[in-house]
Amino acid sequence: MSRSSSGRDSSEESDAWAGDSLNRIEMVQSFTGQLRQHLSAYAAFVGAMRRDAEAMWKANPPEEYGTFEAWWRHQQVAGPFAEIQEHIEAAAKLTFKLEARYRRNRHEIPDRRQAAAEAKEQAALTRGDNPAIGPPPRQQGRAAPRTQPEQEASFMDMVQRGNKRRSA
Questions:
Q1: Is 137 exposed, middle or buried, given 0-12, 13-18 or 19+ CB atoms closer than 10 A?
Q2: pLDDT tens per residue, range 31-73
Q3: Among candidates 85, 56, 52, which has minimal Cα distance to 70?
């Protein structure tokens, strides 16, 4: 059992998640996909509880309540279930926005900026505006966009593989 400088076991650190784990598009896709699945499962769970609570209340209204009080108490119980379910479903929809925003801000916009800078530089070189600039600078192109992996990998598996690569 080895301890790191932070005082934690190294096995604990390999399972730890850090924000820099979301530095590749396939990591974000995996994370948002799994988050969406879990949120959908929670929404279905809350929906089932809500459906059962409403059915149970309607089938067995307490005898000590009048019709208005029974209706009001039912609303007090069933209303929060509906709100919770709506919030969970809204959170699941936001995962699409997260994925799109990440792709746009971390990949598409930088790629367009780099292409525009390269086109501007190439145009300046072909016009011969400044012959003193010497040879064109070395191109540091971005890596080709990664394709979707053939096998859907778990987000935490990707995090653990990334941590193993960094520690090696």
A1: exposed
A2: 899 999 999 999 999 999 989 888 887 788 778 878 888 788 7
A3: 56
Q: What global pTM score does this model have? A: 0.58
CA distance 5 to 146: 35
The dihedral through the CA atoms of 116, 117, 118, 122 has a sign that is positive
> Distance of CA 139 to CAs 63, 121, 136, Å?
80, 11, 8
Q: Which helix (H) or strand (E) holds 27?
A: helix 25-59
What sections of the chain are H helices per DSSP? 10-15, 25-59, 67-103, 109-127, 155-167
- SS3 for 3? strand
Domain borders along the chain are: 24-124
